[in-house]
Design goal:
- With about 350 residues, this protein is an alpha+beta fold.
- The strands form three sheets. A three-stranded antiparallel beta sheet has the order 1-2-3. The chain has a three-stranded antiparallel beta sheet with strand order 4-9-8. A three-stranded antiparallel beta sheet has the order 5-6-7.
- It is elongated and about 125 Å long.
Length: about 350
C-alpha cells in the first residue's frame, strides 16, 4: 500500500451534467403531474404526449429527450350547440361590419403594429436600477466565498461559478425585457381595442369580448444544488485526507522523538491485527497488537522488521527464537545525525 493520495477535485462538466440532468428529470416529472385531463358538465380538456424533442446541452454536449404535449378541448353537446349559434351570429355581424367598413374606414387607416419602445425602455430602466446593485453585491459575495475556499481566479472551478452567476444575471435581464415588452404590447392592444369597441358599439350596441385562452402548463424546475453537494462531498473527503495526513505527521514525529532510545520487537510473526497507517522512507508504519494480547487491548504503533531489513538492514537485530527487533534510532535517524544511546524494550 503506497502513500495516500489526495482526493481528485470534481470535474466541472460532470458536475454540470449531473445538475442539468437532475433538473430536466424533475421538470419532466412535474410536467407529467401537472398536465392532467379535466372533465366537467360543459366539456372536457385532454392532454396527450404527442412527441419527443431532442435538446443538447451546449456546455457538456449531452443530449436529452424531452417529451412534448398537446391539449385538446371538447364541448358538451349543449355547449357545442350554443357555440354554433354564436358562430353564426358572429358571422352575421362580421358580414354587417364588412358592409359598413367603408363608412368607418377613416378610423382604421393606420397600420396595426405592436410596439411601444418608450414604455419598454422606461420599464427596463426602472428595473435595472434595482438589479444592477443587487448583482454587483452577488458577484462580490461570490468572489469572497471562492477566495475563502481557496479557489483562484482563472481556474475551471472559478470560471464555472462565475458562468452560473452570469447566466442568472442574463436570465433576470431577459425577464425584465420580456416584462417590459408585455406591458408595451398590452397598452398597444388596449388602445386598438378601444377603437374597435367604438366601431362595434356603433354596429351592435355591445362591446367586443376578449377571447380567453387556456394557459400552457409550465413546470417549475427546482433549484437543486447538485454542484454544491458534489463540491461539499469533495471538501469533506479532502478534509478527512488532510486530517489523516496531519495525524500521520504527528505519529512520525512521535516515533522520531524517542528515536534511538528504543529497540522494539517488530517481527511480523509476533504481530496480529495489523493495519497500515502510512509510510516513511519506504518503510510502512502500522498499528498492531502482539500475539497473546486480548482483542480489547490498545494497539501499538511502529515499523515492520522485515520491511526495515530491506531498506536499512543495519537497524535490524535478531533476538531469541530468531525474532527480529528494530533499532528505531537507526531506522529513523535523519541524515547527518548521530544515534543516541539505545535501550532495549520488549
Amino acid at each position: 500500500m503506497g502513500k495516500p493520495k489526495a482526493p481528485a477535485a470534481p470535474d466541472p462538466k460532470q458536475t454540470a451534467a449531473a445538475s442539468t440532468s437532475t433538473n430536466i428529470g424533475t421538470a419532466i416529472a412535474n410536467a407529467w403531474m401537472g398536465n392532467v385531463s379535466e372533465y366537467g358538465p360543459d366539456g372536457s380538456t385532454r392532454v396527450d404526449q404527442t412527441g419527443m424533442h431532442s435538446w443538447t446541452d451546449p456546455y457538456t454536449g449531452r443530449t436529452y429527450e424531452i417529451p412534448t404535449f398537446s391539449r385538446y378541448t371538447e364541448l358538451s353537446p349543449e355547449q357545442q350547440a350554443i357555440k354554433e349559434q354564436q358562430d353564426r351570429a358572429g358571422l352575421n355581424l362580421s358580414t354587417l361590419g364588412a358592409d359598413l367598413s367603408g363608412q368607418l374606414g377613416s378610423h382604421l387607416t393606420d397600420n396595426f403594429t405592436i410596439g411601444n419602445e418608450a414604455v419598454e425602455q422606461r420599464l427596463f430602466d426602472l428595473g435595472s436600477k434595482r438589479l444592477d446593485p443587487a448583482f454587483a453585491r452577488q458577484e462580490q459575495d461570490l468572489r469572497t466565498v471562492l477566495a475563502n475556499k481557496g479557489i483562484r481566479e482563472g481556474t475551471a472551478a472559478w470560471n464555472s461559478e462565475m458562468e452560473r452567476l452570469q447566466q442568472g444575471r442574463n436570465d433576470a435581464y431577459n425577464q425584465l425585457m420580456l416584462s417590459g415588452r408585455g406591458q408595451a404590447v398590452q397598452e398597444q392592444l388596449t388602445e386598438d381595442n378601444q377603437r374597435i369597441n367604438q366601431i362595434s358599439a356603433l354596429l351592435s350596441g355591445g362591446q367586443v369580448s376578449q377571447p380567453n385562452f387556456m394557459g400552457a402548463n409550465m413546470p417549475t424546475i427546482p433549484t437543486t444544488d447538485v454542484a454544491g453537494i458534489i463540491n461539499q462531498d469533495y471538501q469533506n473527503r479532502l478534509g478527512a485526507y488532510q486530517q489523516r495526513q496531519a495525524g500521520l505527521g504527528g505519529l512520525i514525529s512521535g516515533l522520531g522523538s524517542f528515536g534511538g532510545a528504543l529497540i522494539g520487537l517488530s517481527d511480523e510473526r509476533a504481530k496480529k491485527d495489523v493495519e497500515k497507517r502510512g509510510e516513511i522512507d519506504g518503510m510502512g508504519i502500522y498499528d498492531f497488537r502482539y500475539k497473546g494480547e486480548g482483542e480489547g487491548s490498545p494497539k501499538h504503533t511502529g515499523l515492520m522488521a522485515q520491511e526495515v531489513a530491506e531498506v536499512k538492514p543495519e537497524a535490524v537485530q535478531k533476538g531469541g527464537g530468531g525474532l527480529m527487533y528494530v533499532d528505531y534510532g537507526a531506522a529513523l535517524k535523519p541524515k547527518g545525525k548521530s544515534v543516541p544511546k539505545i535501550r532495549r524494550k520488549r
